[in-house]
Amino acid sequence: MGVFQWRELFHEVVQTNLCTGCAACVMACPRDVLDYRVDDYHPVQIGEGMGVDECFHGDRGCDICTKACPRFRAWEVELDETLFGRPRQREEVYGVARSVLLVRATEAAVQQAGQDGGLVSAMLIWGLETGRIDGALTSDFSTERVFDAVPALVTDREGVLRTAGSRYTYSANPLAMREADDRKLRNIALVGMSCQASINGSLPARGVRKYERKIALTIGLMCSKTFTYEGQQQVLAEHGIDLNNVTKVNVKGRYMVWTRDGGYYDIPLKELHPFTREGCKACPDFAAEHADISTGGIGADDGWTLTLVRTQRGEEWLQGMVDEGLVEVKPGAEDPVAMRLLDRLSAKSRQRWPADLLPEADGAPRLLPLISA
User: Higher-confidence residue: 147 or 56?
Assistant: First the structure.
């Protein structure tokens, strides 16, 4: 990739709004001169006496932030080749996958706590209870803003079930690595949306060894976009819904809301579109194409998780759970609705990447276009 530093990352990714806000650069910065700005989900330079695009350590050769960034330069091809040994083919619109499955947890309590089939919760619990991981980076509910999402580290079954379910505000889950470091945890699972799951490829592709060794599994959450907290609050208020009374939110072609009094509301998704987070508008990855396992609840049956097994270690984890009877599995093709949506939403997201960034950069394409392009 060459030697590049914060200056290039700031001008090429942050300033151009290609930054998804994943916080990989902040997590990986060895000098602690990058911080995270929650109001616009961007990294910022906090070193004393330096401008917004300056870094004293970068000027002396430090390039860790650009190496960790999963949207810098020829990111897609570099990550593909590292994880899969080859670039994604143009017809592989949702990325490289070993298998596409429908999966659900067999334990009723895990199913009930989870968003759809409970797979993510089941995997984390199994990993913690068998010693495969010491903790998981995920999101939790904010104690300051009702139903907002914040990064969290969970280390037991209770924590996994408490934090289960989807939030549609953005949480930079990799930031929870700070707590994991403080607690000297060695093996961590990362649960994150597509942009965050790409860290699974950027760290080994570019030799960020410190965190590559710590992340034992990456679970990607299929995601087309997230919305600002204030935007969701406004739309709910327009429908007479107090955010304090919301117990669950889901998005399946519409914004679905459950409340404490047993109420249920369907809100047209187009009402939320004006409040799409800026970092989502150019993200081309719906299907978490660089996770070990990608998961989503986009099928006709809410009780199953559409699951894309992408890497060998993802396959080994899932097979281990099948062998112990912790999950049920069937072919993804048994839910044609899910398969159609996977293709359609993946294609739609890939069309977001700015056209002027499709040509080759440093000898490699940044993003392969669709086969129909």
Answer: 56
Cα–Cα distance measured from residue 66 to residue 1, given in angstroms and rounded to the nearest whole number: 10
| CA separation for the pair 292, 97 (Å, rounded) | 9
CA distance 285 to 35: 25
* Under 8 Å between Cβ of 297 and 232: no
Q: Which residue shows structure tokens 């002396």?
A: 60
Name the H helices within 151-308.
157-162, 177-182, 194-197, 199-205, 209-214, 229-238
pTM: 0.93
**CA of 81: how far to CAs of 86, 89, 216, in Å?**
4, 12, 19
251: three-class secondary structure by DSSP: strand
At the topology level, CATH places domain 6-81 in Alpha-Beta Plaits (3.30.70)
CATH 3.30.70.20 residue window(s) in the chain? 6-81
* Rounded Cα gap, residues 57 and 9, in angstroms: 14
From the list 293, 189, 216, 207, the residue with the least C-alpha distance to 28 is 207
**Angle 358-360-365 from CA coordinates, rounded to 5°:** 70
What pLDDT is recorded for position 249? 86
* Helix, strand, coil percentages in the chain from 3-state DSSP, rounded to 5: 35, 20, 40
Write out pLDDT tens, residues 251-301: 888 899 999 999 999 999 999 999 999 999 999 999 999 999 999 988 777
15 forms bridges with which residues in the sheet?
A: none
Confidence of residue 146 (pLDDT cuts 50, 70, 90): confident
Lowest mean pLDDT, pick from 103-112, 312-321, 346-355? 346-355
